[in-house]
Design goal:
The protein folds into 5 domains: 30 residues; 192 residues, Lysozyme, CATH 1.10.530; 79 residues, no CATH class; 48 residues, LysM domain (Membrane-bound Lytic Murein Transglycosylase D, Chain A, Roll), CATH 3.10.350; 52 residues, Membrane-bound Lytic Murein Transglycosylase D, Chain A, CATH 3.10.350.10. It contains 20 helices and 8 strands.
């Protein structure tokens, strides 16, 4: 009897200890204390080729990521495994330090479609001109800077070039942010010092915080558990494979007939900005879930032919829409900097000079430093905003069904009336749209395609 009571008391004590531990140290909002000496000791245990200096500036950024902006850090922890699995093989291929992967977090927060107000885009935030010099093309439809694989390959080549120029990783990383010219200028003004912290005061303000952020995010991600930081969930995408596409392809239509979630297809292919692969592209490597590739190959002719007939005229209309249109666009405010001109600003935002003039009531191309310009940009295509890319004119109503496109069912429509207006049989419409009955409803989008 005494033995049983003893075991009960021991178990009761253990349960209470764990409960108390969970309610304090493992509580979601619990923030452990970490003093300067503890952080210095932990940082000294990190095995890195890149010097990680701890000082008050770096410590303030560590506090920012581990205390003041914990939600941001949790978001990064959710995505890091997926994107690091892409980045790390490229770093190894180019014989670069593995720690450079943390630079992508400082640049974009691991968001492949991230866009800055200055026009930098993608996981590695390439400006248009730098991107083009490293083989990243950028058109109205496709932006290679948003492709994690292509952008990472380009970033590795650029970083290797910067390291060969300066011979130190801290200076190469600084040059990645502000350009090699600004780093050379800071070296000259410092009396030809060659250490980041020795030229610190002569660098642009943004760059002065860039290296400290890099060091801080490196530390915080390596010691996230010690700061009670855990991802709410792990982000992942389906195991993918690629298919080669050399024609116009409407992704929403393609996704529908391959039973792939449109959001998943877009996430696998972030470089596609407008929901289509445009005409003229040759051998575009479209990523698809690996388990759908056999079906796609078996139905290739039907799938490519069907997805080739939807939305083409509407997108072409949207691409050449009248000057100054704001339809479907988001307003940005750009503050003109020294050396800017309307041409360079237009290229940054993928708009026309005439658009900027119209939006800002400019009678000429003259602009002044410090001037604020309204820039209206089209968002990257998503499932939630896809109507922006298929509505050609809000004031124009189609009086008949156009074969080879989508048709939105209106009140009073039937499959028979749609069939009659389009000269496509009811059976064909049902087959293409996978309809099991003749029931349709207002607002439903049907694909209309002749035999």
């Amino acid at each position: 009897m005494k033995i049983g009571l003893t075991i009960f008391l021991v178990l009761f004590y253990i349960i209470n200890v764990f409960a108390e531990y969970d309610s304090t140290h493992q509580r979601y909002d619990y923030i452990p204390d970490a003093n300067y000496a503890e952080i210095a000791d932990r940082m000294g245990c990190l095995n890195t080729e890149i010097p990680l200096t701890l000082n008050n500036t770096v410590k303030s950024f560590i506090d920012f990521f581990s205390v003041r902006n914990r939600d941001y850090t949790r978001g990064v922890l959710e995505k890091k495994d997926y994107y690091f699995s892409i980045i790390e093989p490229y770093l190894k291929e180019y014989d670069l330090p593995n720690d450079l992967k943390y630079l992508a977090i400082v640049e974009s927060g691991l968001v492949p479609r991230a866009q800055s107000r200055a026009g930098a885009v993608g996981l590695w935030q390439f400006m248009p001109s730098t991107g083009r010099s490293y083989g990243l093309s950028n058109s109205w439809y496709i932006d290679d800077r948003m492709d994690p694989n292509q952008a990472t390959d380009a970033a590795c080549r650029y970083l290797k070039s910067l390291y060969n120029t300066f011979g130190r990783w801290d200076l190469a990383i600084a040059a990645y942010n502000c350009g090699p010219g600004n780093v050379r200028k800071a070296i000259r003004r410092s009396g030809y010092k060659k250490d980041f912290w020795q030229i610190y005061r002569y660098l642009p303000r943004e760059t002065r915080s860039y290296i400290p952020q890099f060091i801080a995010i490196n530390y915080v991600l390596n010691y996230a558990e010690e700061h009670n930081l855990f991802p709410d969930q792990k982000s992942s995408l389906a195991l993918s494979d690629t298919i080669e596409v050399s024609q116009y392809l409407h992704l929403a239509t393609f996704a529908h007939f391959t039973d792939i979630a449109l959001d998943e297809l877009l996430d696998l292919n972030p470089s596609i900005k407008r929901g289509v692969i445009p005409e003229g592209v040759r051998s575009f490597s479209l990523k698809v879930p690996a388990d759908r590739k056999l079906y796609i190959n078996a139905q290739r002719v039907f799938l490519y032919d069907t997805a080739n007939k939807v939305g083409k005229e509407e997108l072409e209309y949207l691409a050449r829409r009248m000057t100054g249109s704001t339809y479907g666009r988001t307003k940005n405010i750009y503050r003109v900097r020294s050396g800017d001109n309307l041409g360079s600003i237009a290229r940054h935002y993928d708009v026309r000079v005439s658009d900027i003039q119209k939006w800002n009531h400019l009678s000429s191309t003259l602009i002044r430093t410090g001037q604020n310009l309204a820039i209206w940009t089209l968002p990257s295509y998503t499932k939630s905003n896809q109507k922006v890319y298929v509505v050609a004119n809000q004031n124009q109503k189609l009086s008949s069904v156009i074969t080879g496109t989508t048709y939105q069912v209106r009140r009073g429509d039937s499959l028979w009336s749609i069939s009659k207006n389009s000269n496509v049989s009811v059976a064909t419409i049902k087959k293409i749209n996978k309809l099991n009955s003749n029931t349709i409803y207002p607002g439903q989008n049907l694909i209309i395609r002749g035999d």
